[in-house]
Specification:
heterodimer, A: mainly beta, 11 strands, globular, B: mainly beta, six-stranded mixed beta sheet, five-stranded antiparallel beta sheet
Chain lengths: 114, 113
């Protein structure tokens, strides 16, 4: 089955700790994206990557970091510098990073900072 | 600055009737529009899209209408079914934006049996 997997589904972190969220896709898509969703709000773009070894900041990149060493993997690290990290995090991919391509989403990871 | 707005937080419809979800945008560089459906604690699922060169796209029970002059799009679901109950997001991408999507806040659709 082709798709996007995110792990873990639920994640708890103590304040001041960094945490890494996993995102893997076997769709052979070039582009990958990270979004964050807060209650009552739409999805906001954190980082995106058009190809391997390349990524750009989205609208709310502060306090986050990413890497894209493999085509199928795009992990997101939530650092202690992120002021309000508790949220639902969604990873997505598309065939290429063009404006006419739909993005396919993973099931999400809910991060709670204690 | 909210470039994509869904001004109705919720919509309640009777089964079998039409559901109309609305979305407004401000960025004239948007050239591709999408609708996603989302259940709680799950990722959004792509429903239907439309490019700016069209004013209508239909897929089964779902039709999206685009009015470029009014910077407005709408999603029609006919007939509505209880399984359609979910949050619906409209999203838009701009020319030369590398596929970056800007999302609206979402509309909660409830279809009553």
């Amino acid at each position: 089955d082709g798709g996007i997997t995110q792990s873990p589904k639920y994640l708890f972190r103590k304040e001041g700790q960094n945490v890494t969220l996993s995102c893997e896709q076997n769709l052979n898509h070039d582009a990958m994206y990270w979004y964050r969703q807060d209650p009552g709000q739409g999805l906001r773009l954190i980082y995106y990557s058009q190809i391997v070894n390349d990524f750009q900041k989205g609208d709310i990149a502060e306090g986050y970091s990413v890497s894209r060493e493999k085509k199928e993997s795009f992990p997101l690290t939530v650092t202690s510098a992120q002021k309000n990290p508790t949220a639902f995090y969604l990873c997505a991919s598309s065939i290429v990073a063009g404006s006419m391509n739909e993005q396919f989403f993973g099931p999400g990871t809910r991060l709670t900072v204690l | 600055d909210q470039q994509v707005k869904q001004n109705s937080p919720s919509l309640s419809v009777q089964e079998g009737r039409i559901s109309i979800l609305n979305c407004d945008y401000t960025n004239s560089m948007f050239d591709y529009f999408l609708w996603y459906k989302k259940y709680p604690a799950e990722g959004p699922t792509f429903l239907i899209s439309i490019s700016s060169i069209k004013d209508k796209n239909e897929d089964g029970r779902f039709t999206v209408f685009l009015n470029k002059s009014a910077k407005h799009l709408s999603l029609h679901i006919v007939p509505s079914q209880p399984g359609d109950s979910a949050v619906y997001f409209c999203a838009a991408s701009a020319i030369n934006s590398y596929g970056k999507l800007t999302f609206g806040q979402g509309t909660i659709l409830t279809v009553h049996p």
